Amino acid sequence: MWFASESVNESGDRAFCHFHNGVHVCFGGIIYLFALAPALAIWLVIGIPPIVIPIVVLGRRVRNISRSSQDRIADLGSIVAETLGAMKIVQAFAQESREGERFRAAVQKAFATARRRIIVRAIMTAIVITILFGSITMLMWQAALDVTEGNISGGTIAAFVITGALVAGAFGALTEVYGDLLRGAGAAGRLAELLAEQPQIRAPAEPIALPRPAQGAIEFDEVTFRYPTRPDVSALHDFSLRVSPGETLAVVGPSGAGKSTLFQLALRFYDPQIGAVRLDGVDLRQADPAEVRSRIAFVPQETIIFAASARDNLRYGLWNASDEQLWEAAEAANAAEYLRKLPEGLDTYLGEGGARQSGGQRQRIAIARALLRDAPLLLLDEATSSLDAESERLVQASLERLFIGRTTLVIAHRLATVRAADRILVMDDGRIIEEGTHDSLNSKGGLYARLARLQFEGIAA
User: Fold this and answer.
1) How many CB atoms within 10 Å of residue 203?
2) Residue 190 and residue 214: Cα distance in Å, rounded?
3) d(CA 349, CA 299)
4) pLDDT digits (tens, 9 = 90+) for 287-315
5) CB of 225 within 8 A of CB of 266?
6) CA dist 371 to 290, 341, 368, 407, 412, Å?
7) Is 80 in a helix, a strand, or coil?
8) Which domain, by its residues, includes 251?
9) 341 lies in the same domain as 429
């Protein structure tokens, strides 16, 4: 990264020097030409507008094509990252040839766009040089006639020719530099759009501070929410729920019931279209999202491991944590034993996306990360789904200790997690259809009892 940055800086400095020197030669040369032969120099200046016109007209096209070229390169990078990240799936389904063909097609598109840009830029440069040297040739013809008539000396014409050639060469160099600038402008256009984009979720002008000390109480007040990608389908419909400080609430239900949507709204990744979500009595839309998220520890269903050391992945929950705190969190998540066996301990590189670790190991690191944050509100989305039975038992015991003194929302299907909850919420189609304890819900014979029975039958099978 440092080397690439230095290379970019050197290229930029070199282009700037070329541009700076070219401008000096052009203007200095034109002034000298006026001193040598004002009449000829005037004709030379008159010929400049025909040179500028193709630069402006074709320059816009070069800029647009450069932008398109950057898009194609971005598409190519996305395909490479996606394919390499899912290489095991590609190989398992024997799709190597298809992915190779998709990559080849993307490369061809990127090459065709780059070739079109180079052709247009070459045409622009050729037109400018042709007009420029053609103008100088015509001027030399006129100068030769003036020498014949005795109006100008031969030495003056020689100096005029040499200076004119230098000016023409400088103009040609400026055209090349201008082409580079247009190419950079096309690439920078994408970055400018991203930088100018305003996030929909942002802090209000005068955010309301969350009360202290933090309680961890969260409330959903008649919330109706639709994802932007599915505006016709309600993920939550007229949903109301209050979780008291220190309460452990388990949320169960079939896929698509809206369970994970609760976490998305609690973390304020989205705002509901109707109703409000409150943390410690404050509407999340009136608070600073950074302050809201600082009071939440989150373990997602899809474990995210960064391409960094185990230490950096753990302390993502608390960046200034000491080694003692890291090992305490690792012990609580049943991850310390295998972390000590790594070649370099906490300094071991875990690979891209944690590829060097098993699914269960990655999930235990995610749990330890959340434990280290020690937030008043804990969100667990299938936090033990990738663990074996023994690891799940140990982690579950740690989680039950962690539940004490903090508000916890758990999305789970396994009864080991559900049984430990103070209250169980059963959701379906974005609504609450059952609520109670494990025994009371099981005795009702409703959806929860059916899900529990299916799980028991699966275990028995």
Assistant:
1) 15
2) 41
3) 21
4) 998 899 889 888 887 778 887 888 888 88
5) no
6) 19, 21, 5, 13, 18
7) helix
8) 218-460
9) yes
